[in-house]
Give the backbone structure.
Amino acid sequence: MRKPPITVILIACLYLAVGVIGLVFHLMEFKPQHPFQYDIVWVTLVHLIAIVAGAYMLRGSNWARWLALAWIAFHVVLSAFHSLSEFVIHALLCAVLAYFLFRPRVTQYFRAAATPAA
């Protein structure tokens, strides 16, 4: 398997870090003595998706880069209901990630990983 471009490594590590740190942070807030909280299920799922996207981007899975883009796009939509600055930051981050995940060299890496070696 070919080595991923540095941008893929950095973005995948960012997703892994955000997923793991966010998951740990939110699970520490969980109070078992309170009634079941649906929020913890959704928050956990969102962070697990970030971890899966990061891990599989490093493995060269094309679907993982689309999942990563969908993940940040989801955050853009969520932040539209918050402050304007939060929305702008998420939108800019989404644009930057899309640019770096869909450059020709990166696309070539994901295509090469999808084709079986002869």
User: Anything to note?
Assistant: The helical segments are 6-29, 38-58, 62-79, 84-101, 104-114. The radius of gyration is 16 Å.
